[in-house]
Amino acid sequence: MLNDLARHVADGLRKPIKALSSMYFYDDAGSRLFQQIMGLPEYYPTRAEFAILERQGAAIAAEMRPAAGPFTLLELGAGDGLKTKLLLRALLQGSADFAYAPVDISASAMTGLVAALSRELPALRVEPVVADYATALRALKDRPGSKAVLFLGSNIGNFDPAARLDFLRQLAAPLSAADRLLIGFDLQKDPRRIRAAYDDAQGVTAAFNLNLLTRLNRELGANFDLAHWQHYTDYEPLTGAVRSFLVSARAQQVHIGALNQTFDFAAWEVIHTENSFKFTLAQISELAAQAGLRVVRVFQDEAGDFADVVLACRD
């Protein structure tokens, strides 16, 4: 029986334009590479959002917590929790009664996060969840009491428009009018800065993209020769979309043992691996309304590069 990854690869490589989901970037090696990306000089989103949470964390915490009673703070894609710790500290300092439920698909990343939180924030109640977003959203419906949901790091931009709207509607479904969402949005800006953030001079982003092929070799018995694949990315200002690709540098065949199938690639044929959309504040408000949400408050860094937006279900 095929696992989820194998089924996804079988479907994705049979498409007219081959495509694989960025959710499969994050095996243990991919998670480590992304930690490196966040520290790169070109990669502004992490620094911008960190500045928001560092300088406005108390105000954000006040917007996120319910008027009374305990609540669950569930974070989708928690990673190393570097930025989230700023908000957690603000909530603890404000004597908020809550449990933190970080969600991440990487077991090693979760182990590291839980250990770090135990050392740095021993008073924090942590209920870790190793799962993908879909599983976490299903579990969210069963959690009693008030809820606050975090989706930081501009991850919302990885969804194409239709999937993004569907995802937000799924997020909104288990929430009451008193519950809150905090979502990070990377804002539109100089197109050159955006493109550089996804094609850094050191080649770490290229290694991150190519690691997906290494994962397929290891887990599915594929024989991708990374010497004949390249990373490519570009930014389209009209749509606000960064699109990343793996490019076949020659005509070649790749056999995937788990599928018992061989795939043909023409020279310079691409596998589409990631979208990263950038937004305007007007687009964010429109998207929220379409999903049955309303904008409660917008927090931005000084340069206006990034926005953390507090959302609630419409009454």
TrEMBL record:
RNA-binding as UniProt keyword: no
Residue span, Histidine-specific methyltransferase SAM-dependent domain: 6-311
InterPro entries in alphabetical order: EgtD, EgtD_Methyltrsf_superfamily, MeTrfase_dom, MeTrfase_EgtD-like, SAM-dependent_MTases_sf
Cited Pfam families: Methyltransf_33
Keywords: Methyltransferase, Transferase
Keyword Methyltransferase: yes
Protein name in UniProt: L-histidine N(Alpha)-methyltransferase
Protein species of origin: Hymenobacter saemangeumensis
